[in-house]
Amino acid sequence: MIVKTLWCGIEVPAQRVVAGGLIIYVDKESFFNLLELKENPMVVTGELSSSGFGLKQIKVTIMPLEGALIVYRGEVELPEKCVVIKASEINMGK
Questions:
Q1: Can you tell me the distance from the alpha carbon of 19 to that of 84, in angstroms, rounded to the nearest whole number?
Q2: Can you tell me the distance from the alpha carbon of 41 to that of 82, in angstroms, rounded to the nearest whole number?
Q3: For residue 28, which phi and psi values (nearest 5 degrees)?
Q4: Tell me: the pLDDT tens digits for 39-84?
Q5: Alpha carbon 63 to chain centroid distance?
Q6: Triad 50, 78, 85: Cα angle to 5°
Q7: Contact 21, 67 (CB under 8 A)
Q8: Which of 48, 81, 79, 80 is nearest to 62 (CA)?
Q9: How many whole angstroms separate alpha carbon 67 and alpha carbon 89?
């Protein structure tokens, strides 16, 4: 998997990204309110992996905030101040 940041053009090879801890699902308005708390928030966009479960892919936008992952289920147009990382696949399981 290659993780590519759009803000500064850096590509970072990653074998696997594992997220653990507190995961908070929010609506669109709440997501944007939380984005405003940071000067240059890092945001990850991609699709949740559902391989093996027979489910359709779910597009998500994720932002780490104070040790938690803030998750919006869907795509949004993000402000220019965001550091955007496009992931080819996101697995929040194992």
A1: 17
A2: 5
A3: -60, -45
A4: 999 999 998 866 555 567 788 999 998 888 888 988 889 999 999 9
A5: 5
A6: 50
A7: yes
A8: 48
A9: 21
Strands ordered across the beta sheet of 42-48: 11-13, 2-5, 83-86, 42-48, 58-65, 68-73, 22-25
Print the SS3 string covering 22-70: EEEECCHHHHHHHHCCCCCCEEEEEEECCCCCCCCCEEEEEEEECCEEE
pLDDT (tens digit per residue) in 21-41: 678 888 898 999 899 989 999
- Where residue 20 falls (left for φ over 0; alpha for ψ -120 to 50; beta otherwise) is beta
pTM: 0.70
**Tokens 């997501």 map to which residue?**
31
